[in-house]
Design brief:
By secondary structure, the protein is an alpha/beta fold. The protein contains 10 helices and 19 strands.
Length: 344
């Protein structure tokens, strides 16, 4: 089968590899159909690491994908050959204290697709996954829509974790795919006025069309001043979705006393900082968001019910052999890209 592997900083190679086979009767063999290029994949591409997770070349990244089931292990009952599936990329042990506490996303012995020292990613024609990571989708759900389930489920989880947004005034700093996923989930959960920022105007326009009440580019306007003038009592919750120190600082200024900062973005740096005086005086609650704990099926349900339509997120499409072009496009934020999709 054909695969794409990282072979150095900003280097990729098309490699022929043996077809994977089912080794456990709880696994399934999948034909990969569509792959979304995620910002965390791009971190590995341009930096070779995320924090303590360092790539050892060659290495295959990728974790947002949809597939067709080709074969199922003997004990698999949830899916069968021919099923179209969305994928939960976290393969947890199911036995540790975190898994037993329904926190599989913080499993003590995780295996996450495309994560160094854990598991190869999905940039390949075929892959074997545990059946419990495969979620059937309806025949009318496209493979691209099914691939979008993974990032959207992060937005669903972030909104769920913040404790409720009904009627709330919220900020979303960064309107890439994750920020737009938070926007879609927050609107569906009845959020009040939503303020969105980004440095790419095309992404801001997408946020406006998706229901943002106000959009602003921090390179062109003082977003803190602009939002504060409209909301003198400040915001209830801010979702930081771009992993930038500048956005974290803006979030603290925008939050009302007792407000909540949800950190969804992944910084490229090892450390970030906060004004302890500001977060102490305001008694700001800071909550990290990790992946999409138990929110894949709710995300599918929202999409297939018609309550949420995310088709607008896919702005660019590439075949497998042009994967490097897709990664360069996303890494350099070119051409108004929101989500680049690799179609097999």
């Amino acid at each position: 089968m054909r695969t794409i592997a990282l072979t150095g900083i900003r280097q990729m190679t098309l490699i022929d590899a043996p077809d994977p086979v089912i080794e456990r009767d709880t696994d399934v063999l999948l034909k990969v159909e569509a792959i979304g290029v995620c910002g965390s994949d791009v971190h590995y591409y341009v930096s070779g690491r995320i924090g303590s997770q360092v790539v050892k070349y060659p290495f295959r990244v990728g974790h947002e994908f949809s597939a067709t089931v080709m074969e199922a292990g003997g004990k698999v009952k949830s899916v069968k050959a021919g099923d179209r599936v969305a994928i939960e990329p976290n393969m947890s042990c199911g036995k540790c204290d975190q898994c037993l506490a329904r926190r599989r996303h913080t499993c003590r012995k995780p295996r996450f697709l495309g994560c160094p020292d854990q598991a190869d990613g999905c940039l390949a024609e075929y892959i074997v996954m545990p059946a419990e990571c495969c979620y059937p989708v309806q025949a009318g759900t496209s493979f691209e829509q099914a691939a979008l389930v993974e990032p959207f489920s992060i937005g669903v989880y972030a909104v769920k974790l913040c404790g409720g947004v009904e009627g709330a005034k919220i900020g979303i700093l960064g309107s890439g795919c994750i920020g737009l996923s938070v926007l879609a989930a927050a609107r569906q959960r009845g959020a009040g006025k939503i303020y969105v920022t980004d440095k790419i105007d095309a992404r801001l326009n997408a946020a406006r069309k998706a229901g943002a009440a106000w959009i602003g580019n921090p390179d062109k306007v003082d977003v803190v001043d602009s939002i504060t003038k409209q909301e003198p009592l400040l915001l209830d919750t801010v979702f930081e979705c771009c992993g930038q120190q500048e956005a974290l600082d803006q979030a603290v200024k925008l939050l009302k006393p007792g407000g909540k900062l949800m950190i969804v973005g992944i910084p490229e740096t090892d450390r970030v900082s906060f004004s302890i005086d500001a977060i102490r005086r305001k008694e700001i609650c800071i909550q990290n968001v990790r992946r999409q704990n138990e929110c894949v099926q709710p995300a599918i349900d929202l999409m297939e019910s018609g309550k949420v339509n995310l088709d607008f997120m896919v702005t660019h499409r590439f075949p497998l052999e042009r994967t490097k072009e897709a990664f360069d496009l996303v890494a350099d934020y070119r051409d108004g890209v929101v989500k680049a999709m690799i179609n097999l």
